[in-house]
Each structure stands twice: as C-alpha cells, then as structure tokens.
Amino acid sequence: MSVNEQVLNYPLANDAALDPPAEWAELRGQCPVAHVRLPSGDQARLVTRYDDVKQMLADPRFTRQLTAPDAAQLSADGGGVFNNGLTGIIPESGEEHQHWRRLIGRWFTAKRMSALRPQMTQIADDLIDDLVKLGAPGDLKAGLGFPLPVYVICDMLGVPASDRDRFSYWSDTLLNLTRYTKEEIDVAQAEFYQYMSDHVSAKRERPGDDLLSELIAAGGPENGGLSDLQILVTGMGLLVAGHETTANMIGKMVSMLLADRSRWERLLAEPALIRTAVEETLRLDANAGFGLPRYLPVESEVSGTVLPKGTTVICSMAAANRDESAFEDAGEMDLTRSPNPHLAFGSGPHSCLGQSLARTELQVVLEVLLRRLPTLELAVPVEELERMEGLAVGGLRTVPVRW
C-alpha cells in the first residue's frame, strides 16, 4: 500500500537517534498531506514540505490551541501543552497576541542576549568543572545540557534554580503524549500552578530585577499590562519552553557534531563557524519532537489537497528542514551553510519568542566545550544513543561522552 492510502501512526516510529524516519522523504515526494493517527486515536493530517509548513505556520487564521470541539486530541488523556485549559489565557491571535509578544519580547532582544553571554559562559565553565571532577565518561545532557538553560531561565524569572527537578517533572507532564496518566498530569499541573501563583504573589511584595517583576510593575490590563493570571501562565510557559527544548538540543547538537568527528575537528580549527554550525544542527535535527499542530477554522488548500474546516494539521518542521527544494544537499551537514532559513523555531506570528535565547545558549555551550574539552568524543557508538519517548519534544535519554 502506498503512503497515499495509508493512515500512519504518528509520531512515526524511529529507533535511530540522529537520523530521520525513512518515510519523510517518501511523504514529501508522494504524499505531502498525509493521513495520520495520533496517540489519542484521533486522525489528523501531516504536512512535510518546506513551502507547505511555512505557509501553514504563517497563516494567522490557523490557531495553535486545540480546544475547538472538533479539533483532534493529541494524547489519549487530553491535557498536556496543546490541549491545556490554561493555554487560552494568553491571547491566541491578532493585536492582543502581538501586544503580549511585545511585552515579553523585550526580555529576549539580541542586545539583552549579548549582555547575558558572560554569565552563560561562566555557568557553562562551572558545569564543565563539575563534569571533569566526576571524571569520564560523563553524561553531557545531565551535566551541562539540562542545568545550563534551567539556571538561565530561572534567573530571568527570578525563581530559585534549586527547584529545577520539580520544574523538570512539571514540564514533562505538560509535554506529555503517552508517558503520564491523566491523574499524574492533573496533580502536577495543580502543583505547578500553585507554585507559580505563590511566586507571583511574592514578586508583588518584593520585586526583583526579573521578567515577572517587570510584568507586574507594568500594571494590569487597564494600564496596557497583563492580568495576574496572564502573568502566572506566562511564567509557567516560559519555564517549560525556556529549558526543555534547549536542554535537549544541546545534547543533540553535540552528538551530531561528534557523530562524525571531522566536524568537531573543523570547528576546533575554525571557531568562527560556531554560529553557522549551530544553525545547521537546528536544521538537521531529526529528533525535534511532535511538530506544531494547527486547527483549521476554515476550509483550506495545501499542495492541491482541500482540507475541510475543522481539520487538525501537524506541521513537521524537522521534515520540512530536509526538503531538497528548499536546501541544497538537504540531507548533508554543511557547517558553513548560509543563509539557512530553517523552520526549527517556526515561522510567522507564532515563531518562537525565545529563539535568540536558545541560539545564544547553543553558541556559548559550543564555544566553551571547544575551548575546555577539545578531545571530546562520544563514549558509545551513535547506534546506542537512545531517544526519549512519549513527550512532545524530542531528545536523547543520555549523551555519554569522554575527553
């Protein structure tokens, strides 16, 4: 049976840690708008071509939140980051959404990121000191990939990094597809909500130099600011988004560069390539997770396929990033590739708000690792790296390295 006639189970099964599922190329070529069955059992459509994914993400009519009665449920138990009641509290589209982005975006400007670089570098150096003390082999994900973005986002939000294990668990339950039960998710989200509610109240009493204090100081909606509930949900969202994806990407980036060690050697010889190398690993990430769902409140056409009103579409940015029509030698890693208009951070009005933060963290990690651990290598064959399963974000369970 051809891919055109099949209903594929999604996410597509794939054991390879760093390579894409074989179906991606086939789908882009023959079936750019495929039928898929989600973990919940509901059906949706999957788009894998660069132009189609970009069009879907940039169209303001298509919404992210799957709260419509005829929208597909992603996970069997509902809940999670895409089907969450809290998500409707942040304005979804139009001028209100852009206003929210402007208020938050002031904390993620290139200028602010440059100011944060020395602090990030210090954190990375300290974490590598600890990794070296423990001795090789070590787990680069647990030792560096996970803690660095957590320390940075905690600092930006003024929350204690010592609570990071709790944040990690709460994040995982919010990003659940198949790993947690509805009861576990409900309990964790209630705890997370209470924690952030207490934190926002404490910031109101004793403001600091952090994003949440600034949002409180801006005043409520009547003064062009956000409501208490919006500030609270913004804090929860940034904590999840600000550590989970980048923590995983650090591990995947380093694994991709060490999988063929000539890449690492080239960066040691030409550190000026760090910026383009980061972009290329973001583009080639074959384990990026679920992709972005979109709900169609109106009939639409994609690649000649008419999609009725009420369709849920999954946009696979990772598949689109390997589209030969958009990138020359799309399956190859080119550390010098520029320009590199990949879709790892989405596109259009909902593109990732924290992309400058993620880019800066990835660049800093690479700078510090090349300087401190030039002999770094994977401690296991690439084939033995294991994917994390059951969450909306993709990552590796561990990244065993020696130096």
Automatic annotation (TrEMBL):
This protein's UniProt keywords: Heme, Iron, Metal-binding, Monooxygenase, Oxidoreductase
InterPro entries: Cyt_P450 (IPR001128), Cyt_P450_B (IPR002397), Cyt_P450_CS (IPR017972), Cyt_P450_sf (IPR036396)
Co-factor requirement: heme
Entry similarity comment: Belongs to the cytochrome P450 family.
Protein name as catalogued: Cytochrome P450
